[in-house]
């Protein structure tokens, strides 16, 4: 087997567009499969609404607590730091017990903590609640991605990955719209944004409650019951297989964390302080900064969907590389203009590239993950990358506080402002180069049928893996087992 970095970037001819045409595959989906996908998408959308409630409220939070931008961004940093804890907890619970109830309880916990965020009266209380919120938020991505993708046929997973990931951009957009329309009209101002976000998360939990467990877990549990396995024995097997997975895939774990560190720096470096950048460095009003944010997120939604669809034809890594190169090309449009139209166009183009590359990540991580750990492995890698990049907002705030430039204000007078433009341009450019290198040298298991593999509580789950080019994981198994695997190759309605 050739090393990862020697494998071709473009999938072999026989691997491209394998199976049915995309439209035919989409038409074959059952209502349950659609429900699983959109419930995962909605959960990830709620994650974004809840997280960006702070980013969109920085100025109001400064007034509320009498703190600087640097201090307020501490809440963002703490949320990102604690997300990895939640990813481990909820990922393990999901891979051990199933997809449905862990996600339901995860969303309800987020709803409670987001509601509490709107009732705090002191800055210390706010930091404490946002830290706990980070733990709850950390579980969402791995559970949402596995719920959405593992129940779909392989032919639609590229497009589905792009649409799923842009639930985050949709969430940011919805939060921005709420901040633009509801917040200024209420006496509670920023608190109303948090309370509204809490209600949406509770609604997402209700939607997941109405849907059945993932078909793959239902079949696995039925097979375990048929063999007379007890809950205690399944837990013992799960712990053993988890250790086996870590022993065999520790290098892949390190790679995934490095990849997600770069991606999270790209995302948070271009989003978290974007409204602050426009108001402080470009002297936009809060209204215009929010509108530009909405335009940028429209670019993100378009980029994610297009990139996910393209990756089904040219592969995951090559798609990421193309969209990262687009990021570098559009950095000048992001930072140099002074007019609203040009800066909004820059926001659209940069987010088209950033979130286009991001759109491939859910399916890329799912395909390179140890198959039995499709919630834990991607979720923990994602959130550890988040933890490393957690100080991105504070890095930008500190850099801008120490780097100034002179611009002409609306009255035609020169004014010295914090140079967020240069700081963000340098950060995004350096990180884009890092992501490019890490992506090129990394693995790709394009078109993997990970749904054929064992779950984490089945014996051999930690040793189960799908290498690039492997036709079927059941090829070398006894015929009776192979027949069972063939039945499991496409998720069925429950």
TrEMBL record:
The keyword Transmembrane helix applies. Residues 455-494 are annotated as: Disordered. It is found in: Membrane. Residues 455-464, 483-494 have a biased composition (Basic and acidic residues). The chain crosses the membrane at residues 21-44, 72-93, 105-123, 129-149, 193-211, 250-269, 289-311, 318-336, 420-442. PROSITE patterns: MFS. It is a multi-pass membrane protein. The keyword Phosphoprotein does not apply. GO terms for molecular function: secondary active monocarboxylate transmembrane transporter activity. SUPFAM superfamilies: MFS general substrate transporter. Pfam families: Sugar_tr. Keywords: Membrane, Transmembrane, Transmembrane helix. Coiled coil: none annotated. Its main location: membrane. Residues 36-446 form the Major facilitator superfamily (MFS) profile domain. One of its GO terms (biological process) is plasma membrane lactate transport. One of its GO terms (cellular component) is plasma membrane. It comes from the Eukaryota. This is MFS general substrate transporter. It comes from Polyporus arcularius HHB13444. The lineage of its organism: Eukaryota, Fungi, Dikarya, Basidiomycota, Agaricomycotina.
């Amino acid at each position: 087997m050739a090393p990862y970095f020697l494998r071709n970037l473009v999938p072999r001819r026989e691997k491209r567009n394998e199976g049915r045409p995309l439209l035919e595959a989409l038409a074959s989906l059952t209502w349950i499969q659609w429900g699983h996908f959109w419930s995962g998408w909605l959960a990830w959308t709620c994650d974004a609404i809840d997280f960006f409630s702070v980013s969109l409220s920085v100025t109001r939070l400064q007034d509320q607590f009498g703190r600087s931008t640097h201090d307020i961004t501490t809440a963002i940093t703490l949320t990102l730091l604690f997300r990895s804890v939640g990813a481990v907890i909820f990922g393990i619970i999901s891979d051990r017990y199933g997809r449905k109830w862990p996600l339901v309880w995860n969303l309800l916990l987020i709803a409670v903590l987001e509601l509490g965020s709107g009732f705090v009266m002191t800055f210390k209380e706010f930091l404490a609640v946002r830290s706990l919120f980070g733990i709850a938020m950390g579980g969402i991505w791995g559970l949402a991605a596995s719920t959405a993708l593992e129940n779909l046929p392989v032919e639609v997973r590229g497009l589905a990955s792009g649409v799923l990931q842009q639930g985050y951009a949709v969430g940011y957009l919805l939060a921005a719209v709420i901040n633009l329309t509801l917040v200024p009209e209420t006496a509670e101002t920023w608190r109303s944004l948090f309370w509204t976000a809490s209600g949406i998360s509770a609604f997402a939990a209700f939607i997941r409650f109405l849907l059945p467990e993932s078909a793959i877990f239902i079949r696995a549990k039925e097979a375990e019951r048929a063999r007379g396995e007890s809950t205690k024995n399944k837990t013992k097997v799960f712990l053993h297989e988890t250790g086996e997975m870590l022993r065999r895939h520790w290098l892949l774990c390190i790679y995934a964390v490095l990849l997600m560190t770069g991606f999270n720096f790209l995302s948070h470096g271009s989003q978290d302080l974007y409204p602050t950048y426009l108001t402080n460095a470009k002297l936009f009003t809060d209204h215009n900064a929010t509108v530009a944010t909405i335009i940028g997120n429209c670019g993100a939604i378009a980029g994610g969907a297009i990139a996910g669809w393209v990756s089904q034809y040219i592969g995951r890594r090559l798609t990421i590389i193309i969209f990262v190169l687009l990021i570098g090309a559009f950095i000048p449009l992001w930072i140099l203009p002074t007019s609203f139209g040009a800066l909004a166009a820059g926001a659209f183009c940069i987010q088209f590239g950033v979130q286009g590359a991001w759109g491939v990540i859910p399916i890329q991580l799912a395909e390179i993950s140890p198959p039995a750990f499709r919630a834990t492995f991607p979720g923990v890698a994602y959130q550890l990358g988040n933890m490393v990049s957690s100080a991105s907002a504070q890095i930008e705030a500190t850099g801008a506080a120490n780097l100034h430039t002179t611009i002409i204000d609306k009255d035609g007078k020169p004014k010295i402002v914090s140079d967020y433009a240069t700081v963000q341009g340098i950060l995004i450019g350096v990180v884009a180069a890092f992501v490019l290198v890490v992506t090129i040298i990394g693995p790709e298991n394009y078109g993997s049928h990970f749904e054929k593999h064992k779950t984490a509580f089945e014996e051999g789950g930690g040793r189960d893996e799908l290498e690039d080019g492997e036709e079927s994981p059941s090829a070398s198994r006894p015929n009776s087992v192979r027949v069972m695997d063939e039945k499991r190759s496409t998720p069925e309605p429950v």
